[in-house]
Amino acid sequence: MNLTHTALRRPVTTIMIFVSLFFIGGIAANMLPLEFLPDVDFPGLFIQIPYPNSTPKEVEELITRPVEEVLGTMSDIKEINSDSDENGVSIQIMFDWGEDISIRAVEAREKIESIWHQLPPDVERYFIFKQSASDIPMINLRISSSHDLSDSYDLLDRKLKRPLERIPGVSRVELYGVEKREIQVELKADRLLAHRVDLGGLQQALSNINLAVTAGKITDGQRRYYVRPMVDFHSLQEIKNLIINEKGLRLKDIAEVHLKSPDLDYGRHLDRNYAVGLAVYKEAGANTVDVARRVLETIHQIEANRELEGVRLFFFDNAAESITSSLQELLKSGLWGALFAIMVLYFFLRRLSTTLIVALAIPFSLISTMAFMFFMKMSLNILTMMGLMLSVGMLVDNAVVITESIFRHQQLGEDSTNATITGVKEVGLAVAAATSTTAIVFLPFIMEPKGEIAIYMKHVSLTIVIALACSLLIALTLIPLLTSHVSFKKKTVKEDHVGKTFRLYKKMLKWILDHPGLATLIILFILLSSLIPIMNTKIDMFPENDDRRLYLLYNINGNYRLAKVEEAVDTIEEYLYANKERFEIESVYSYYTPNFASSWIILKDDKKAKKSEFDIRKEIEEGLPQIAIGQPTFERESRTQTTTSLTVNLWGESSEVLSDLSKEVAWRLSQIKGLRYVHSSLEGGDDEIHVLVDRYRARLHNFTAEDVAQVVAAALRGQNVHRLKTETGEIDIKLSFRDIDRESLEQIKHITLYDNRGQPVELATLANFQWGKGPRRIHRENRKTTVAVTVDLEGITVREAQKKITEQLAHFKFPTGYTWGFGRRVEQEEETEKVMMTNMLLS
Length: 843
Known about the structure:
With 843 residues, the chain is α+β, with helices and mostly antiparallel strands. It is built from 29 helices and 30 strands. Strand 23 and strand 24 (729-737) form a beta hairpin.
């Protein structure tokens, strides 16, 4: 082999090359970014269009459907899903792996801009995000205090958020549970009527605040100047004194104008105190552990600030801790594996010098691999670390074969150099071929990965292939060079345990060759018997984590005042903390809205735990208090109890038809043994007052239905009419009625509009009113409305449940245009399983 000849002729050069690689790899190992998962750009776009204080049905009709239709004209879309709720719509578009998402984002923006005029005029903006691993928060904090933090945005922004944003490697910091102050113009209904103020005209007047346009240029001597008329306000008092009609009526005469924090429609508790959430995101490519360390140092400095005295910071999620602990566990496993490999080598080689030479292949290969990883812009994460650990056992294979061949020729009396060259020549080609066949197995994952699992497998495979290539290079150069300088004793007559094992192997081989038929039957029996455990092995491509946390869902049965929901949360939290030691509770974090509430129960870690999650859950359920507005249940049982969930999706156009179908399907599924906690995503719903505008009556007063709807929306839910620019940023100006003027249906009926003759017209004259139920959220998949019926499985597998559900629904006739299928998770598992099997067959 030419490489071996060169290594033997140039020993110093060879040693220096590998020493250099070792030092470069050591430096690279310290410079490799540490991440939990590789920074993968997913083939999808996430589009968010805020439309606060609306209803899911209104958002779906006015925004979701038009945007979906225009986005659906983009080519090569794999799927498009949307979720419409009272605060706007979120749309997710998925493409095939390998698509240039940056170009797709530009195309999506152009599509939305082309129909922007068709959307409601008070839709202000939209956001398009590309999905990647860096979009996951690096650190999630919960901030609680003995005093109320709901009006502390400026304090937290100045003392906490901004210092964290200045840290190198931090891309953005977001605060939740506390909002920036806004200018609230709260109209007095009686004053509007008394002064005959048109609400539409008032909206336009406020929209012209801070108007700045370019009027052209003027020439003064030899100089030219731009002319910009400025309509600017610099204080709250100037806004109050805004003249809104020709009679000199001022805004303060018909409204209360305040600068204050907006009323929140959600809340958070941490250990029974009001909590604020804070999420820290890192820049793409930044070292997660280093950035997190700098964030923690800054937080410790912030905690010493007197202005934040009494404020408690709780780390809800810290990716750096997960990365460090996971990498340490993998490193520990790798070191134990390397130690066992060396022990096995010594058991067979029976020489310390030979064992150490062969063992050199492990550190040299791993460190050299890290050098290549650095220059290939890879990171040290769970997957690449796993690849390194999996390759430990394979790294010594080449060195063992080469060393044994050289050792055998030295035993025959050849000198060291000839024995080395001859030994390598005999097995070198076989070693290279064996390494290539091992590496080729991972080629499909490296060359053209498809699917999320395959993309991640690429990082494992690439690491293993690089390590194998390094081990082959070491086996053909460094190992022969070192072995040639070690003298071996001639073979003695005494037979050791290795010789006995070899003699036993020869007898077995001779028996197999003498009895080919019986040997074939035994081999077939072993292969067939292995099919039984394979068929009974549970396949789960996306397993859930068992992280000592319980998730309690309150299942709120309607839409209530936030204070009412908070009372229910307080009741449950009081019960949990009364039994804190018994339930081994470390902390409780709750989140609630007018129609939703949940609690994360964080248990003591495994070192301090005396009970399993399943036992604690059962104990909590036994004494769990009942609440009038919901039915608290745990989302699903612990993974260790082999209980999982399964979703059946119903697709169609009408939400009303799907609601009826979901009730029938849920009842049928509840009759199947092994299925429990059957519930539909449309259960509950919110009470609504439907304002049905009579287009004929509206036209008699020169109104359109859209005019009436916009006035009602502005009066009740409020409308952002403009933003006031200040030295510290922009402040939203929100126009709405006072709370006391929008508390009853009668007040809504008396909302007054003015026609083109200046005559007042009450809303009751133009519309009819009906009570009804509306969905809390409308989910659509591939431009079809979707309702999910979720079940928990007990005592049966997912595949058994799928079979029983299919048999049950086969006898149910769905209306034309309405279909059903299993949830996306099942489809992803089947798709990933097919991709993995295809890649394995190609290998």
